[in-house]
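Changelog entry

Holo records now carry the ligand SMILES as an explicit input line rather than a separate metadata file. Below, a converted record for zinc ion, shown in the new format.
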Amino acid sequence: MKITFLGAARSVTGSCHLVEAGGLKVLIDCGMRQGRDAKQELGAGGLSFDAGTIDFVLLTHAHIDHSGLVPVLMKNGFSGRILTTSATSELVQIMLVDSGHIQELEAEWRSRKNERAGKPPEEPLYTAEEAKGVIEYITTLEYDSAYDLNENVRIRFVDAGHLFGSACVEFYAKEDGREVKTVFSGDLGNKNIPIINDPDIIDSADYVVMESTYGDRMHEDKRPPDEQLKDVLSEAIRRGGNIVIPSFAVGRSQEILYEISVLLKEGGVPGLEKIPVFLDSPLAIQATEIFKHKYLHYYDDEALEYMKEGVKFFGFETLHIAETAEESKAINDMPGQKIIISASGMCEAGRIKHHLKHNLWRADSTVIFVGYQAEGTLGRQIVDGQRKVKIFNENIHVNAAVTMIDGLSGHADKGGLIEWISHFKTPLKKVFLVHGEEDTILSFQKTLAGLGYDVLAPRLNDSYDTGLGLSPAAAEPKKDIPELIRSTLHNIAAAVEAEIAHGNGSQLAPMEEELKDFLDKWNNRKATRNGEVK
Ligand SMILES: [Zn+2]
Ligand SMILES: [Zn+2]
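Structure line, unchanged by the conversion:
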């Protein structure tokens, strides 16, 4: 068996691992690289491998960093099956269509920019229409039921407790007469995530490929999310202004609605029952429908209990849905205090930006962050306490109260990750760390090594063969040397010019000798090559 790490290797996004075993080529996830990782180079068509040779894709969950390149796979000759849970199957469809819309908008924007620069237009990676085709490829498989990919390989999904329908993959491959078991953790949930169960315990494996998002951090506030939200909402209501919650559309938004419905039932937040709650994100509204209807077998006991008692998580009396852009805009003209849940979670796009523009400057408003804010995002600027931010080219003063709840984090922290791996009773031959910033992965590698595990932190495109061990990614393609020299010379010339322009020309004098020396050597070599000097 051979595993090649095609994404989320010493980085967080773009999860994609190729397993070659039992005559099959199987991808575990096919995610999109986001933020900084998006700059990592991919091959033609946005993939670094031949899509036509892949037999199966096993999707651990619907998040775009695990599923976002599936339509690219389809466009490039994939004719196999995608296996995933029924909840993920529904969620991934709406998420990929939404991602297709975003690809189209971005391509349009870049094309307009190209046009002004006299360059050709750009095609979207895939369109919303193309993304819709994903349904044709999906076979659903529920937790804990085995599935034979062929006579040599079988798999099983178990609950990862990270998102509705999220799974860890147990991968069994026959090798030299015995079965080798590899566990892919996918994203591992935090304990006490509302609605869904905690991650399942897995107690045996030969190899483990595990995420490390919070491999060097503990969540600060250990109280359950409902207690944290209770305090923050009580204070926000007392302040009297609007309460704006930037939220990820799928998962987090439904968790907040759930917590609010439970707080309404249990009491303890004075005045909450009088405040209208607006869910203002088309994707969140679609996702909420999926949470609501068919998939009660993904609910945890607490959620089922509340349901029995008549709590309507996604249909309580004060909940309003803002489907259209007009309905969204109207929220800001309404008098009185309200709770507004809107996307995107890091405030980079979507309707949330309008709500922040209308509320950040007001001293009685409260903004409640419920998820990680990546560096460089508008959300991060606000969380970091910046007093002025730019929204739609307008300077907005931050006078609102800003708070952060970390009890709703979707990922296990360092303690949770160690607990998860400590359940394995059989000695693990190797642990591979993926899905984390490089520093975090290296720190977590040390932690696990200290606990006696044999841990590797593969780099992008590294392979591990159970017979041969780790082999580094194939050598980089040959560089265009003349072009490299040309651009280096160009950079030197530009630096010299800049120094002279700044009146530092005299500092360059010592360099002249070195440059002459270099040119002498250059001429000698050239002469040797041309056969002039023997
Ligand atoms: Zn995830
Ligand atoms: Zn992820």
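Spot-checked after migration. The chain has a mean pLDDT of 92. The two ends are 54 Å apart (CA to CA).
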